[in-house]
């Protein structure tokens, strides 16, 4: 038998779907339904409600302001009425099919409307001629909800997909889609698929086909905590309390459940029949309301009886239930992968020079009022304080913005999942099971390697993967010290893995794995190096701290730390490269050259380091938040290293003219290509299922590309050829320099194949120069000086390339240029060129 509510239902509408919504100030509760009228119930007043007569029949959606209500009806009209008089103010929009939902933006300027037609319309209440049409979804929309800030509009589609539209741009656009959460429902069904936003605006809850309630974070679309196990019937309505501490849900099996948000536990369960819509009083009063399919409204004052539950309802705001809340990470956002915004500058003199206690040495010996009766200096001359604390310690006045440590190849938590490592060998990912984690290692080449999966009680939070094995690290937990765990892919002994325990109070901030060594940079700024099976080899303290990240390849270890503070208030990144086997320093505390924000950027964030890795041939590479890939040239020679850009992803052809809006997650540099994962829909990191890898050829930003006119299939112009060949020359010269550095670094240990590779690349560079020479000769005699300059760049010392250059000039009848090339060839062969 159903329970009897503590207060009887109040007839509000004829039997049928009945909808309710509070006004923002919580003073009125609007109820509408199948009748051609609506009612306005005054909070705390048991008298007759105000009647809004002569509304359109069969209302399917309600949105309320403090002195007006907007109703969407079966006849396709959306009308605004005055409250409490019920006078028609305006018809906002008209559809040909029934309205299904309306949503009022938090600033009450825009009304979003969906119907049995396909598009969503956003209408300006102040100017109904201003309308935006959203039609990225393929089927009609059942529910619409704005987030509390008004930045996002969530649309629950009848195809079972949630479409999140961003309203921050001049024209609202699709921000992301979320599939596999809500059920496929027809627009007229009473079962809900509505996205109900948590009051903190970072997540929303929605009912799933399994009759659970799933929380989804909007920024990354990740599945967060789940409210499960309470309903055996389809869920009909959801409602957060105003502070987000409680969640109410109702279902078709006549269950009303009140949940506690933090623990996702059931506080109260009621058996009330035929509930179809729920609402908490909007300002936090202990009043709960629902409507039924019989047209009744239940208003329950003092709904929560338990004092602890009332304290939850009226207590401080509670954050949305995340698995790993980013706000818990030191209470601020890290600088890496998007930096925290700068704080305001302190304005008052006390802010700038410190607390007044430091001025108690001042004596008012002439009675001029330097100090007050307490022996303190007065501050009457300072004027009013505008929001800044008056008394702070000197160390709190200003602090530089530092780059937080990060693990290369790892993603942040999204819901209960994260990638610990992503590279060309495979990927390592972990799932938070509350009491433990489960770790999976998968490989691209499953003929050579075997996937494995294990239960992780140690809660590994970092991993590295290469051809030889997998490396994990975990922080200290309870009485267990921080550990590093290495598991090889192949073994010929009984026990194959190795575990390394770090000293008490020390944890790895980042780890690296090469073919010979394990490397860990710790929170005490030590760089610890072991052999693969745990024999300690080297130990030193980083000169730049706090540490940021590290990477290893063969005998080499590259570490990055925070260095001196720059003029922008951010620390410069400093890197060092050490040869572990020889115990030599290749580069010592050099600047890692990050770029600056582009002029058109509207963000206040600074450029940050997103990835650090070694290429497949052993050259350091970095990728920054500007989307620029750089490699380090001449890094084996102390003091000679320089960062050279290999690719600026912002200049890719696929992004020209706003064709696509996407960013790239760096994975590796191999086979002279940049391997990455394309991120769309506002994503900041890859998510599950595992996305495909994409590769881009290097394209050094040498000059501005020539804009093509007409058909792309037209023959290449000379200007286009010059730009293409100049970029090819710089890129080939850079790659030649990397190979030549390797051969020079190996010295007598360099093999024949490596030396031959240098010669082959030199010939390739010279061939490009000959092609560039041909283009200049084709353009006319007036380009002769540049053509001769190009000849001087030829590397060949045998004279064959110079002879070929002379023939190119002769082919185009550039006789003067041909003579000068031959003269230059003679001087070079005699050792009398410009270098002499």
From TrEMBL:
Domain WDHD1 first WD40 per the UniProt entry, residue ranges: 14-297
WD repeat ranges per the UniProt record: 228-269
InterPro entries: WD40/YVTN_repeat-like_dom_sf, WD40_repeat_dom_sf, WD40_rpt, WD40_WDHD1_1st, WDHD1/CFT4_beta-prop_2nd, WDHD1/CFT4_hel
One GO biological process term: DNA-templated DNA replication
The WDHD1/CFT4 helical bundle domain, residue ranges: 724-830
Principal location: nucleus
Record bears the keyword Oxidoreductase: no
Domain WDHD1/CFT4 second beta-propeller: 404-702
PROSITE patterns per record: WD_REPEATS_2, WD_REPEATS_REGION
GO cellular-component term (any): nuclear replication fork
Gene Ontology MF: a single term: chromatin binding
This protein's UniProt keywords: Nucleus, Repeat, WD repeat
UniProt subcellular location: Nucleus
Organism superkingdom: Eukaryota
Keyword Ribosomal protein: no
Xref: PANTHER family: WD REPEAT AND HMG-BOX DNA BINDING PROTEIN, WD REPEAT AND HMG-BOX DNA-BINDING PROTEIN 1
Protein name, entry field: DNA polymerase alpha accessory factor Mcl1
Upper classification of the organism: Eukaryota, Fungi, Dikarya, Ascomycota, Pezizomycotina
């Amino acid at each position: 038998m159903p329970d009897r509510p503590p207060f009887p239902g109040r007839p509000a509408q004829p039997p049928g779907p009945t909808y309710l919504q509070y006004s923002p100030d919580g003073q009125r509760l609007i109820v509408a339904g199948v009748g051609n009228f609506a009612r306005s119930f005054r909070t705390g007043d048991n008298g007759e409600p105000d009647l809004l007569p002569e509304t359109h029949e069969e209302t399917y959606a309600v949105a309320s302001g403090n002195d007006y209500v907007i109703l969407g009806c079966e006849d396709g009209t959306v009308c605004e009425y005055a409250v409490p008089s019920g006078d028609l103010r305006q018809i906002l929009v008209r559809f040909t099919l029934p309205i299904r939902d309306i949503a009022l933006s938090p600033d009450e300027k825009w009304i979003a409307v969906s119907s049995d037609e396909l598009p969503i319309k956003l209408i300006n209440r102040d100017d109904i001629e201003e309308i935006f049409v959203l039609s990225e979804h393929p089927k009609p929309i059942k529910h619409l909800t704005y987030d509390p800030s008004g930045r996002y509009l969530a649309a629950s589609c009848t195809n079972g997909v949630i479409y999140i539209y961003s309203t921050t741009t001049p024209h609202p656009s699709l921000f992301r889609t979320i599939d596999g959460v809500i059920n496929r429902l027809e627009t007229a069904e009473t079962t809900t698929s509505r996205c109900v936003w948590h009051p903190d605006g970072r997540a929303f809850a929605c009912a799933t086909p399994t009759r659970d309630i799933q929380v989804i974070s909007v920024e990354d679309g990740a599945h967060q905590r789940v409210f499960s196990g309470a309903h055996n019937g389809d869920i009909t309505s959801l409602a957060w309390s105003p502070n987000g501490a409680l969640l109410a849900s109702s279902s078709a099996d006549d269950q009303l459940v009140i949940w506690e948000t933090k623990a996702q536990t059931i506080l109260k369960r009621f058996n009330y029949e035929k509930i179809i819509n729920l609402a908490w009083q909007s300002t936090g009063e202990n009043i709960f309301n629902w409507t039924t399919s019989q047209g009744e409204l239940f208003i329950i004052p003092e709904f929560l009886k338990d004092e602890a539950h009332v304290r939850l309802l009226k207590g401080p705001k509670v954050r949305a239930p995340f698995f790993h809340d980013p706000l818990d990470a030191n209470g601020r956002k890290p600088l890496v992968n998007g930096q925290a915004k700068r704080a305001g500058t302190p304005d008052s003199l006390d802010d700038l020079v410190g607390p007044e206690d430091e001025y108690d040495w001042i004596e008012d010996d002439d009675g001029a009022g330097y100090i007050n009766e307490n022996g303190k200096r007065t501050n009457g001359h300072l004027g009013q304080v505008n929001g800044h604390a008056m008394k702070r310690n000197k160390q709190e006045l200003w602090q530089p913005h530092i780059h937080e440590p990060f693990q290369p190849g790892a993603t942040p938590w999204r819901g209960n999942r994260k990638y610990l490592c992503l590279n060309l060998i495979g990927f390592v990912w972990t799932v938070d099971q509350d009491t433990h984690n489960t770790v999976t290692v998968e490989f691209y080449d499953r003929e050579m390697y075997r996937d494995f999966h294990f239960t992780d009680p140690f809660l590994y939070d970092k991993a590295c993967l290469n051809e030889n094995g997998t490396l994990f690290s975990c922080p200290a937990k309870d009485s267990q010290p921080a550990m590093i765990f290495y598991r090889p892919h192949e073994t010929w002994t009984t026990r194959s893995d190795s575990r390394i325990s770090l000293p008490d109070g020390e944890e790895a901030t980042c780890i690296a794995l090469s073919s010979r060594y394990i490397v860990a940079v710790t929170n005490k700024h030590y760089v610890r190096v072991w052999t693969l099976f745990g024999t300690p080899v080297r130990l030193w303290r980083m000169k730049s701290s706090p540490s940021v990240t590290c990477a290893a390849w063969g005998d080499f270890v590259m570490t990055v730390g925070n260095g001196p503070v720059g003029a922008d208030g951010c620390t410069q990144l400093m890197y060092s490269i050490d040869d572990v086997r020889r115990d030599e320093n290749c580069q010592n505390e050099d600047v890692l050259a990050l770029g600056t924000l582009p002029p058109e950027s509207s963000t206040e964030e600074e450029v940050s380091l997103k990835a650090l890795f070694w290429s497949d041939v052993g050259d350091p590479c970095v990728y920054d938040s500007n989307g620029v890939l750089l490699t380090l040239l001449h890094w084996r020679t102390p003091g000679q290293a320089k960062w050279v850009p290999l690719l600026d992803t912002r200049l890719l052809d696929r992004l020209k003219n706003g064709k696509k809006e996407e960013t790239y997650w760096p994975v590796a540099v191999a086979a002279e290509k940049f391997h990455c994962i394309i991120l769309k829909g506002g994503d900041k990191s890859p998510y599950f299922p595992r996305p495909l890898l994409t590769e881009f050829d290097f394209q050094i930003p040498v000059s501005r590309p020539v804009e093509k006119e007409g058909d792309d299939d037209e023959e290449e112009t000379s200007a286009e050829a010059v730009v293409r060949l100049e970029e090819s020359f710089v890129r080939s010269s850079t790659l030649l320099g990397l190979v030549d550095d390797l051969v020079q670094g190996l010295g007598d240990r360099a093999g024949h194949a490596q030396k031959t590779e240098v010669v082959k690349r030199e010939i390739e560079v010279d061939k490009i120069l000959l092609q560039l020479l041909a283009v200049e000769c084709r353009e006319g005699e007036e380009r002769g000086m540049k053509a001769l300059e190009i000849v001087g760049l030829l590397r060949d010392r045998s004279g064959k390339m110079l002879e070929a250059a002379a023939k190119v000039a002769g082919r185009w009848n550039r006789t003067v240029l041909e003579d000068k090339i031959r003269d230059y060839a003679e001087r070079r062969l005699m050792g009398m060129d410009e270098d002499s």
